[in-house]
């Protein structure tokens, strides 16, 4: 009995120590579906002019390129809320720091949140919290049309926090910066690892700026045959799910990160660069460099509780946000403590050098855990977690019982 009591006390202590990390700061609550075929992607026309003016600054400070914005696009959008998306666009307080002089890393890193940020300050966030109701790891591709998500003609929609974000080619932005056939794409944005992002058009010879300009193609292809079935979805690999695609080296112009080493107008001496493509993945899903933690979903590594690490307006908690250098606030690991119900903290995942498949399966498992946790707790209990109002928790970060 004493052993059980000790275990229970330790469990309470750990949960108490991390319970200030709000469930509200997770990605949008996951939804489960049984659809196994892609549909028709119906894009909303750009009929709405944002009521708030776009604000964005991009500057190099020390070793970082700092992008700050209010997240309001500089172009017309679809109407939000709408039938597929009940959220309204609102001003954010985005601040992203990426390496000003990025370097190619020893290994590829899968995306764990937003891929990057556009030059207008709107983030690229190609994933969606939509999963198959069965075997973990089957995430729906938001541009497949299988699930109606209220996406507009710029392949964007709005999160519950009011954050407008791009899932695919940002046509409104592309028109405003004049991406045109026959000309190399201008700079479209910055990836989380600091390398530049371009759209569709690049030199036919990567190391020759005098070569003709062409549409660059992805090297991802649909898998052949049918999905496993059983607890997993069945049916033909048709692009309904992210896992319907596989990388086929040499089948296109770009590598598994949808990028290449090349010359660009902004980097005439060469750089690694990402290209958004007309084919899947459209927005890249892997990094060649080391991504900044500022683009991760959920509480930012380095937050210490209280106001959370990244609220709806992006305010940092007392510990601030972890930067590319990896500095973080106090807690269970170099980047701060995990949130309630977290299966494997971000720093543990990074240390395990997980494969892309393992990362996808862990993400799906985490989705199920998050959904279950939210179904167990009442709305009032969730609100308490969000506000840090649990009795005996404030000022008690060591996790001990209140006396």
Automatic annotation (TrEMBL):
<dbReference type="Pfam" id="PF14240">
    <property type="entry name" value="YHYH"/>
</dbReference>
<protein>
    <recommendedName>
        <fullName>YHYH domain-containing protein</fullName>
    </recommendedName>
</protein>
<keyword id="KW-0732">Signal</keyword>
<feature type="domain" description="YHYH">
    <location>
        <begin position="95"/>
        <end position="289"/>
    </location>
</feature>
<feature type="compositionally biased region" description="Gly residues">
    <location>
        <begin position="300"/>
        <end position="334"/>
    </location>
</feature>
<dbReference type="InterPro" id="IPR025924">
    <property type="entry name" value="YHYH_dom"/>
</dbReference>
<feature type="signal peptide">
    <location>
        <begin position="1"/>
        <end position="24"/>
    </location>
</feature>
<feature type="region of interest" description="Disordered">
    <location>
        <begin position="287"/>
        <end position="344"/>
    </location>
</feature>
